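Two proteins follow. First one:
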Amino acid sequence: MNGNVDFHVNRDSKGPLMTAPESLDPRSHNVAGDRTAELLRLFPEIRTEGGKLDFDKLKLALGESVDVGKERYGLTWPGKAECFKTIQTPSLGTLLPKRDESVNFDTTENLIIEGDNLEVLKLLQKSYLGQVKMIYIDPPYNTGNDFIYPDNYSESLKTYLEYTGQVDAEGRRFSTNTEADGRFHSKWLNMMYPRLYLARNLLRDDGVVFISIDDRELLSLRGILTELFGEDCCVATLPVLCNPKGRALDKYFATNHEYVVCCSKTVLPKGYFSIEKDEDQVMAEYPEEDDAGKYRLLELRNTHREFGKHNRRNLHYAFFVSADGSVRLENSDSAIRVYPDWDDGFEGCWTWDKEVTVHGAGSSDGDFRPAMWASTALVT
């Protein structure tokens, strides 16, 4: 067989004409073909006679948007060009169901795929392109012995099956990635780049990826994520406390944390990752209530002492508190001046300037009553 399922046209004497379904293409999704088609759709003038792309014409079409300089900011390493060949090489692998190892095979909506992740990512491009909301990746941290690579950088489904041995049937040598190797970081990058490239394709527009990593390859990971996702879509690098006591065998400091790097497919709106509080949390954190709803009292004085009158002069001004408890920004007879100063004499500052204070308190005449402060309280 050639890998395709062939059907023939057959007319039954008592039945309708049976048409032949299309032959199945065993190859994975052609990522490079999609990009080429999109470029030709946007710039039909760059098509050559052989159906390929004329980059000189593309540069002319883009004009000043093209950076023609030889030196530019970016991350490069030995083998990076081969990464694109790896991405563009289609997979001929097949996903085989295992009913005997499954639970509720016919009704479950969950899927576990076991195999080389590069091959699997290629196979998923057809069915899940632009449909995945969240991806979590826990890659090898490149400690020197935690992942094995083929010496010729070619990785395939066959390679995955051979990882448990040191040589394959043809005698190719496999070895661990040690720090003494001149391409210690390059080999890790060559392993990661194609997988992150394909993983991004699977994300929907509001999709995000979380990747665990430690200090060894954090900078390398951030570099390729910035290239693949764009700097504006590198959401955060989050420290994760994983060993409160610290690793005693570390050379200089007993490291107690690792990182999770988060990137998004597109720029997300502010507050996208906020978690809505339940009713019990709202009641506990916002104990005060008026006609406008629940609120809490916070100190208006900026509690960060790196800010004060010395560098925030517009935030250092007086409130005038009268005997009846009313608070104004304008001086009045017998009113007490209240500055954002500390007991030790440090001249601090308020969180808001005068204009924001008037707006936040909801008063245009400068008369601030306690109920109008909503989420703020003065501390003398």
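Second one, unrelated to the first:
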Amino acid sequence: MPVAGWYANPDNAEQLRWWDGTKWTDAVSDAQHPGAAPAPAPAPATATASDPTPQTDSRGFFSRMMGVKSDAAKAAAVTYNGLLASVVDGSADPATFPAAIEAARSEAEISVKQDRSSRIETARALVDRVLADDYLSEDEDQEIFGSMEMMGLEPELFEGTLTDVSKSILIARANAGRLSPIDDSQMVAKAGEVVYLDVAAQMLKEVTIRQYKGGYGGVSFRVAKGVRFNTGAVRGKMVPVGTEIQVIDTGLLCISNKRAVFLGDKKTQEFSYDKLLGMKLFSDAITLQVSNRQNATTLGTTSPDLIAAYINAASQEHI
């Protein structure tokens, strides 16, 4: 903790303010530099320092503790933010960026942790700008991953911190007709068939909930004092009172250049593109309608938009 004395006022750069060794006091001075006139105001009664001469924060400890940055640090922060902005707008120079951003970070007193967080958010902003039209060309793909490398961000981030960004990239690639085959699909491909996506899915079914409702349908009459005879019967029936969605099977939905196939624990269901009539998207499911099946099939999934984009792109190839 700094000793009692006069330091730069964090609320007014043109003043000095008295620090009593534990906290700021209300005493201020118009003197901006040690020895400058007028003389500093006397220290408050609580101050114990014998020498009221304005002191300098030579090691920078006090300024860092109070969050006060020098003019040079503030200027470096502006440079730092400008460099990150150049990544987003695509004007950054890969040859000079790494050294320039590190120098600005250091001079601006930005921690390594804060710097990494800022670079990750910059990557997000870059992807948002590139994917504004929901299409991703090869050149735009290279811009994204080249900028990630320039900022020192590893591609593995797309499997963790940037998972949502990764999904947006895959959808934009599919919208542009750029599907990449996978080698480890659970589906056994036919001759000439290429699999592009395996995604977890649940087969769903809408079930009607029924409830029994009934009443007495006969007559009652007296045969003696205190004795009655009942005839007829209780008449009732099951009536629908609502519906609910139930999971009837769990497995994978595999998408190839010829078909989509649900591989469930209990059953397998195929959706050939030449029989596909339509798709309906929900926030957590997708419904597929094919001409050779009377009822549509609804599959629960965390990525209905990704599935729709892949099926749309793959079915266009099939045509």
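SUMMARY FIELD: The chain has seven helices and twelve strands. The first helix runs from residue 61 to 65.
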